């Protein structure tokens, strides 16, 4: 069955970077785009960007331009999202999700807490 | 960027009753709308895509409708496991995906 398993919770200081992984299984990794979506406490879902694992090409939401990098490793069927220059308002649960226009399978989420 | 607005913020219903959730887009998104269910501590779960197509394994009591700027998710007879948060999302004009602020369905 299709599974997306994300790395564990992180606590970071302001200004630091975090890298979240999303290990996939049960389908052809190169055949589906992967998106990253975050959810701050009590807030709506916020789309961060997407990556084409086949080409490695990625596109980012304007709010995250210059701070986020999405990569993939086809040999490990794993995608990564790195967010730099963290601020307190980056505290959120970060999700990876498979899909084109919508996310049909989601990772379990990774809580990233930014606190001094 | 397309803004998605959901109403009401909270919907109080009894088990067995019908629930009707609304989602409005700031501009036409054709039929490119998805609905998700989210329970506390869990990831969103895709219910509906293409405005009206149920995702795999989704019970028939979930029905999506609408096109253009007005969309509705109807849950015909609420079961205990349906009390959750529901989000709409547009993917007609992306990037970015944009989501509504959610409707909480409570007992």
Keywords:
heterodimer; A: 116 residues; mainly beta; 0% helix; 48% strand; B: 107 residues; seven-stranded mixed beta sheet; four-stranded antiparallel beta sheet; globular
SSE layout and pairing:
The complex is a heterodimer of chains A (116) and B (107).
Chain A: E1 3-6, E2 10-12, E3 18-25, E4 34-39, E5 46-51, E6 58-60, E7 68-73, E8 78-83, E9 92-98, E10 105-106, E11 110-114
Parallel strand pairs in A: 2-11
Antiparallel strand pairs in A: 1-3, 3-8, 4-5, 4-9, 5-6, 7-8, 9-10, 9-11
Chain B: E1 4-7, E2 10-12, E3 19-25, E4 33-38, E5 45-49, E6 53-54, E7 62-67, E8 70-75, E9 85-90, E10 98-99, E11 103-106
Parallel strand pairs in B: 2-11
Antiparallel strand pairs in B: 1-3, 3-8, 4-5, 4-9, 5-6, 7-8, 9-10, 9-11
Explain what the structure shows:
The complex is a heterodimer of chains A (116) and B (107). Chain A is mostly beta strands and 116 residues long. Chain A is built from no helices and eleven strands. In chain A, strands 2, 4, 5, 6, 9, 10 and 11 form a seven-stranded mixed sheet that branches. Chain A has a four-stranded antiparallel sheet with strand order 1-3-8-7, with no helix packed on it. The N and C termini of chain A lie far apart (40 Å). By secondary structure, chain B is mainly β. Helix content of chain B is 0%, strand content 48%. Chain B is built from no helices and eleven strands. In chain B, the strands form two sheets. In chain B, strands 2, 4, 5, 6, 9, 10 and 11 form a seven-stranded mixed sheet that branches. A four-stranded antiparallel sheet of chain B has the order 1-3-8-7, with no helix packed on it. In chain B, β5 and β6 form a beta hairpin. The radius of gyration of chain B is 13 Å and the shape is globular. The chains are: A mainly beta (116), B mainly beta (107). At the A-B interface, β5 of A face β5 and β10 of B.
In short, what is this structure?
The complex is a heterodimer of chains A (116) and B (107). Chain A has no helices and 11 strands. Chain A is an all-beta fold and 116 residues long.
């Amino acid at each position: 069955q299709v599974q997306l398993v994300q790395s564990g919770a992180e606590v970071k200081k302001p200004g630091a970077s975090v890298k979240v992984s999303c290990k996939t299984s049960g389908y052809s990794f190169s055949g589906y785009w992967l998106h990253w979506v975050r959810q701050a406490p009590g807030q709506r879902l916020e789309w961060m960007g997407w990556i084409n694992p086949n080409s490695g090409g990625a596109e980012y939401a304007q709010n995250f331009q210059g701070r986020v990098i999405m990569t993939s490793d086809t040999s490990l069927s794993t995608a990564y999202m790195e967010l730099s220059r963290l601020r307190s308002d980056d505290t959120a649960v970060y999700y990876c999700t498979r899909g084109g226009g919508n996310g049909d399978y989601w990772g379990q989420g990774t809580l990233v807490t930014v606190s001094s | 960027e397309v803004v998605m607005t959901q109403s009401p913020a909270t919907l109080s219903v009894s088990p067995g009753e019908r629930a009707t959730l609304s989602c409005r887009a700031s501009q036409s998104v054709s039929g490119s709308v998805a609905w998700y269910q989210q329970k506390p501590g869990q990831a969103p779960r895709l219910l509906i895509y293409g405005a009206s197509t149920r995702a795999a394994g989704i019970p028939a009591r979930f029905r999506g409708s609408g096109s253009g700027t007005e969309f509705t998710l109807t849950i015909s007879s609420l079961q205990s496991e349906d009390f959750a948060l529901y989000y709409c999302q547009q993917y007609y004009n992306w990037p970015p995906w944009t989501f509504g602020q959610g409707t909480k369905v409570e007992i």
